[in-house]
Write a structure and sequence with these properties.
The complex is a heterodimer. Chain A is an alpha+beta fold. Chain A contains six helices and five strands; from the N terminus they run H-E-E-H-H-E-H-E-E-H-H. In chain A, strand 4 and strand 5 (156-168) form a beta hairpin. Chain A is globular. Chain B is of the alpha/beta class. Classes of the chains: A alpha+beta, B alpha/beta.
């Protein structure tokens, strides 16, 4: 029995050591940009891979908006910067993501310096399958490419691939997961963007 | 007991081993095999190899563009794919070349000299449903082409070829190397299109 435990532990260690990182740096931003920039523009678009899954999330957000008695929003419109955080879960994904990235980077202290445009191309937004969570585990996931560009010149200053995966298994995992999954994933995704633009000192 | 421990260790090794393993894109496939591959990977619009041009083509040091494909995100990162794309570039440019020899003409005749300086490709895979994976592959090829025609001064044009292709890579990421081959063929055909445009622009 002990041997089996040791083998299982070794296997778990081997697998965890091989686990990929959530951020794959394709082009790092230069040191001169770190902590010396502000995100003033965020473009969010969906890659062809995301199209199928996103419709369900957009419908859920629209239903929440109706239930909250809020007026429908135009998905193509720019979100107002002062939109209350409580309202974010009722916004179309692109608008929610734009507000989230601006908010999280501001919280990280990126409020002055070179103005940046962050172009996000989402490949997948997926929530855990409740049945699979109980049986074998499943995960929530938000993944996509992020390009950091100079707002004025359009020059590409950095590029990343961010893949946020939150795995859950069993009844406890399902209970701990809670609600607002789309916003939690977006918050974590935006946190990775902010970390790439700020040094660890901030 | 020992059997269980061995089984656990074997399972761990089986999963960990691919992390170090590399597959190689196969450019030795026939045109018919490539067409069948496109169908298998769900890629529409298969194009036949190019017809002969009325000019000679010379390609300088094409091996410089051979590279390893970058797998972004978490899905399918256990494997690497080496991409000797110069093999397909030579094959497609050979089909375009007036005599198929890819050498400078002895007589004064129109000739295009292609210098390829860099290439890269990446693959982003996501689970669109449980146990169903789709990948978005991107490739770029950069360099320059010089057109020489009897009686005219040489003209050099930059080359930047960018191709994106969605593919059904299949369970356990098994079709990654095949998908890379198809992407390399599509990229090479896009290069041929660009060279035809450059040759005809006067």
């Amino acid at each position: 029995m002990n041997r089996l435990r040791v083998a299982a532990l070794a296997a778990a260690l081997a697998l965890s050591a091989c686990g990929p990182k959530p951020v794959d740096v394709i082009q790092p931003v230069s040191a001169s940009i770190r902590n010396a920039s502000m995100v003033d523009e965020v473009d969010v678009r969906l890659s062809p891979l995301a199209a199928d899954r996103m419709a369900k999330f957009e419908q859920n957000a629209a239903e929440k908006r109706t239930a909250a008695g809020l007026a429908p929003v135009d998905p193509a419109a720019e979100p107002a910067d002062g939109t209350s955080r409580d309202e974010w879960s009722t916004l179309p994904f692109a608008q929610m993501m734009e507000l989230m990235v601006k908010d999280v980077t501001r919280d990280r202290g990126l409020t002055s310096g070179r103005p940046l445009r962050v172009a996000v191309e989402i490949d997948t937004l997926k929530t855990a399958n409740a049945g699979m969570v109980m049986l074998a585990g499943s995960s929530d996931q938000l993944a996509g490419t992020v390009q950091v560009l100079d707002s004025v010149s359009g020059e590409k200053l950095g590029e990343y691939y961010i893949d946020v995966i939150n795995s859950h298994s069993g009844l406890l995992g399902l209970a701990m997961r809670g609600g607002g999954v789309r916003e939690k994933l977006a918050n974590e995704f935006a946190g990775h963007i902010a970390r790439q633009l700020a040094s660890k000192k901030k | 007991m020992r059997r269980s421990a061995l089984a656990a260790a074997a399972a761990a090794l089986a999963v960990a081993a691919p992390a170090a393993a590399a597959r190689v894109a196969d450019y030795a496939l026939t045109e018919a095999q490539f067409e069948a591959l496109a169908e298998k990977l769900g890629v529409d619009g298969f194009r036949p190899a190019p017809a002969k041009g009325d000019f000679d083509v010379v390609v300088e040091a094409p091996e410089a563009v051979d590279h390893r494909i970058r797998v972004l995100g978490i899905t399918c990162t256990a494997w690497n794919v080496d991409n000797p794309v110069s093999q397909m570039v030579k094959r497609m440019l050979g089909a375009l070349d007036r005599d198929g020899a890819l050498t400078a003409p002895a007589q004064p005749r129109p000739v295009i000299t292609v210098r390829l300086e860099s290439a890269s490709s990446n693959m982003r895979c996501v689970q669109v449903k449980e146990l169903k994976t789709r990948c978005l592959l991107r490739a770029s090829l950069a360099g320059s082409a010089t057109v020489e025609k009897p009686g005219s001064p040489p003209r050099t044009e930059p080359l930047l070829i960018e191709v994106e292709q969605q593919q059904k890579i299949g369970g356990f990421c098994g079709g990654m190397a095949q998908g890379t081959s198809l992407l390399g063929r599509t990229t090479s055909l896009a290069l041929v299109d660009r060279l035809r445009a450059i040759a005809g622009a006067d």
